[in-house]
Specification:
Distance between the termini: 87 Å
Mean pLDDT: 90
Helix content: 10-25%
Number of helices: 12
Strand content: 25-35%
Strand order of the largest sheet: 9-8-7-4-10-1-11-12-2-13
Structural class: alpha+beta
Largest sheet: 10 strands, mixed
Low-confidence stretches: 6-23, 463-468
Radius of gyration: 28 Å
Length: 609
């Protein structure tokens, strides 16, 4: 047994009477969704397309935390925080590459086992990912850090098609556990069945409390189109959005199945349920999982609310008053502190969370937290509601009033320097307590991209001068053809003819335009037809199939103006315009780009006759 765990456990055995604990302790069901944006809980009222009737009912039967936060904007550190109740920066799991969870850190299941709980885990674990000393520096599963090494009696660990399990779905234990099991069905269905199987095994001894951690792998990529849910989503939405809504609906149905099982077992009123998202949704093209954070600012990977404020619901029928909306900030770390207190265990200073029950029952009228703290990659933040201070490396600092709509777009640092100074002192003091004391890491280029896209446009680099290439005109280049400047405009001349000729297109690198972008093209052709505009953003290393908008190239002698809306998220840096394969005698008179809250970018190639 690891030394730190042993000290706590032996002290605990001498302090508490196990039978008394068994008689009063509630069951605890902790459900964690994955990359599930704040908007995608229907009760938030952010998007009418979201349908989550069972989650809504869970909140109606208990409490919706309107300001529920997680301790990191990324999955591994967020999960390390919720399963220990200790801020993950205290033991060095700062980001996805700082795992695995150290064995000496006491987890919630290990604590609850000392109060007589049976513990189970289903779904995404990821706290056993780390780099071995030999071989390439890639993350891999480390068997010594799987769930059974962190206090779980039973487990079904896995995300997609393969699972390391202690029991089969039929309830029979595996003698050679952890056993690798394959199941090709939709992952949420399988993970829900694993949770129901755990509950089936508890029915024989209803007097024994249990803790179940169900970590659904959704709506995280890879996206799927599971039925019967996908066909019920609005068909006018982008495919990614429909897939996300379908996967969220699958989780919602899982909530319904689990609550029905609890009623059948007769333990619904003796079970505390938490439902929490692990971090905000990613929004970049190529990373977007179809989920949304609106109206919050930012996305996964940011310490703005879009990255760390998530769907957060709790219910304990008969204990927590129904239809409650709790407005004070709470955090995922509070789950462990609450469960430990309800189990009758002694208070441990290692727990950074707060027992929420006195606050929910009205016994404590104060806010649960004086302040919330974060440090992730090159970002650090402190929230003393409603004021939030964020440092971006040593480059920029921002003071926001998060109680205002769009509050994290207006930097109030110059208006309230005394508030910023007070919060900065708190953040520095907290940072000195961490595994690696001090400020956040040096400025990370991806963090600059995040903040340039969502918070501070001035961080975007000035567009470089376009490379001068033969045949280039005002930075526009032609591939598989040439450009000719005429008195009236710009003529596009394909290089070859016939079916084997490479497709001609024009391209413009070196841009920096905030999306969404509207492109206005004044053009004509002897033969036009189907064409497309393609783009690449700062977050993408290449052109992606999803980053295309079709349009019709106008045909005839008269110049015609057409507009194409490019649903770009982030900053446009590279553009392509590709006419149809059968197009002929193509001419462009002008091109104009209009980005979000930005001046026009305009190219004029000639004058109309």
């Amino acid at each position: 047994m690891e030394p730190l765990k042993a000290v706590f456990l032996f002290a605990l055995i001498g302090w508490i009477s196990l039978p008394a604990c068994l008689s009063a302790a509630p069951n605890v069901l902790l459900i964690y969704s994955d990359d599930h944006g704040w908007a995608d809980l229907a009760l938030q009222g952010a998007d009418p397309d979201v349908r989550t009737p069972n989650l809504d009912q869970l909140a109606h039967d208990g409490v919706r935390f309107s300001r529920g936060y997680v301790s990191a904007p990324q999955c591994v550190p967020s999960r390390a925080g919720v399963i220990t109740g200790t801020h993950q920066n205290r033991f060095g799991v700062d980001d996805n590459h700082k795992g695995p969870l150290p064995l000496e850190v006491l987890t919630l299941p290990e604590r609850l086992k000392q109060a007589g709980y049976v513990t189970g885990m289903c779904g995404k674990w990821h706290l056993d990912l780390g780099s071995k000393k030999e071989g390439p520096r890639t993350l891999r599963v480390l068997p010594d850090h799987m769930p059974h090494r962190h206090g779980f009696d039973e487990y079904w660990r896995g995300e997609l098609r393969q699972y390391y399990a202690s029991h089969g779905l039929d309830g029979k234990p595996f003698e050679d556990a952890p056993k690798l099991v394959s199941d090709d069905r939709f992952r949420i269905t399988v993970q829900t069945e694993a949770a129901l199987s755990f509950l089936d095994r508890r029915a024989a001894k209803p007097e024994v409390p249990w803790f179940l951690y169900l970590a659904w792998y959704a709506p995280h990529v890879p996206l799927e189109s599971p039925e019967p849910w996908f066909s019920k989503t609005p068909d006018h939405l982008p495919k990614e959005r429909r897939q996300a809504l379908a996967m969220i609906a699958a989780m919602d149905d899982g909530i319904g199945r689990l609550r029905t099982k609890l009623k059948e077992m007769g333990v619904e009123k003796n079970t505390l349920i938490f439902f929490i998202g692990d971090n905000g949704a990613p929004l970049k093209r190529g990373a977007w999982n179809g989920s949304l954070n609106a109206p919050l600012i930012g996305e996964k990977g940011m310490l703005t609310d879009g990255g760390v404020r998530v769907p957060f619901v709790a219910a304990w029928p008969g204990k927590i008053p129904p239809r409650k909306v709790y407005e004070q900030p709470v955090m995922n770390l509070d789950v462990a502190a609450t469960a430990v207190a309800l189990a009758g265990l002694p208070h441990d200073q290692a727990l950074d969370g707060v027992n929420l029950m006195p606050h929910l029952l009205g016994e404590n009228k104060t806010a649960p937290h004086e302040a919330l703290f974060w440090r992730w990659r090159s970002q650090a933040a402190v929230l003393e509601h409603p004021w939030k201070l964020i440092h971006l490396g040593d480059k920029e600092s921002y003071l926001f009033d998060v109680s205002q709509p769009g509050g994290e777009t207006e930097n109030l640092l110059a208006k309230h320097p005394e508030i910023a100074a007070r919060l900065d002192a708190k953040l520095k003091a907290w940072s000195q307590e961490l595994h690696r004391p001090g400020a956040a890491e040096p400025l990370h280029p991806q963090d600059v991209v995040f903040f340039a896209d969502h918070v501070d446009a001035k961080l975007a680099p000035a567009p470089p001068l376009a490379a001068v290439e033969p045949g280039g005109v005002q930075g526009w280049l032609c591939r598989n053809g040439t450009l000719e400047t005429t008195d009236t405009g710009l003529r596009i001349v394909p290089q070859g003819r016939g079916t084997k000729a490479a497709r001609v297109f024009i391209t413009r690198p070196g841009l920096s335009v905030a999306g969404p972008v509207e492109i206005t093209l004044r053009a004509r052709a002897k033969k036009g037809g189907a064409a497309r505009v393609s783009w690449r953003t700062k977050a993408e290393s290449d052109f992606l199939p999803a980053n295309e908008s079709p349009f019709q190239w106008p045909a005839g002698e008269v110049w015609q103006e057409l507009k194409v809306l490019l649903p770009i998220q982030g900053r446009l840096i590279h553009l392509r315009i590709t006419p149809g394969a059968e197009a002929a005698d193509l001419e462009i008179q002008s091109i104009e780009l209009k980005g979000k809250n930005e001046a026009l970018t305009h190219w004029e190639f000639g004058r109309a006759p």
